[in-house]
Amino acid sequence: MLPTNDTNALPLNIRITLAFLMSLLAFAIMLGNAVVILAFVVDKNLRHRSNFFFLNLAISDFFVGVISIPLYIPHTLFDWKFGDEICAFWLIVDYLLCTASVYNIVLISFDRYQSVSNAPVRCLKPEKN
Fold first, then answer.
1. Contact partners, residue 12, CB within 8 Å, separation at least 6
2. Position 38 in a domain
3. Are 115 and 85 in contact (CB under 8 A)?
4. Sheet strands (E) in 8-124
């Protein structure tokens, strides 16, 4: 029976398959968020206050796919020991980007709440003649 958290106990072919699938996931994250960023740059109609939160979320998630996940794959699956500088860089950037993503989701939720709860009152009440 395999230990529950030890990926090095997995056979090499399974670890290579997992690395390939995780790389596909990182590529999909990069591609999807790049499309969102490109749409924001190309279409000027998207540039209003609430969409800037989505742009910020796309940028932070793009860099998660570019930096965090590619460094996580060999570290976890193949027990690659980073040097102290790369490890510190990876941890700082990973925590920063993941926290930025969470804060962006909170801001998007708060913005949506504000837009629904502070809807124009005349839309809710008919005008009197």
1. none
2. yes
3. no
4. none
Amino acid 15 reads R
Kindly tell me the burial class for residue 84, based on how many C-beta atoms sit within 10 Å of its own C-beta (0-12, 13-18, 19 or more). exposed
Instruction: Provide the sign of the torsion angle of the four alpha carbons 120, 121, 124, 129, taken in this order.
Output: negative
Cα 48 vs. chain centroid, distance in angstroms? 21
Q: Is residue 69 included in any domain, yes or no?
A: yes
Using the structure block, give the residue that is written with the tokens 């072919």: 13
Q: If you count DSSP H runs as helices and E runs as strands, how many of each does the chain have, helices first?
A: 4, 0
The answer to whether residue 59 sits within a structural domain is yes
Classify residue 73: in a domain, yes or no.
yes
Read off the tokens for 121.
């009152």
Which residue range(s) make up the domain with 104?
A: 26-117
pLDDT tens for the 129 residues of the chain, in order:
455 566 667 888 999 999 999 999 999 999 999 999 999 999 999 888 888 999 999 999 999 999 999 989 988 888 878 888 888 899 999 999 999 999 999 999 999 998 888 876 555 556 665
> If DSSP codes are grouped into helix, strand and coil, which group holds residue 47?
coil
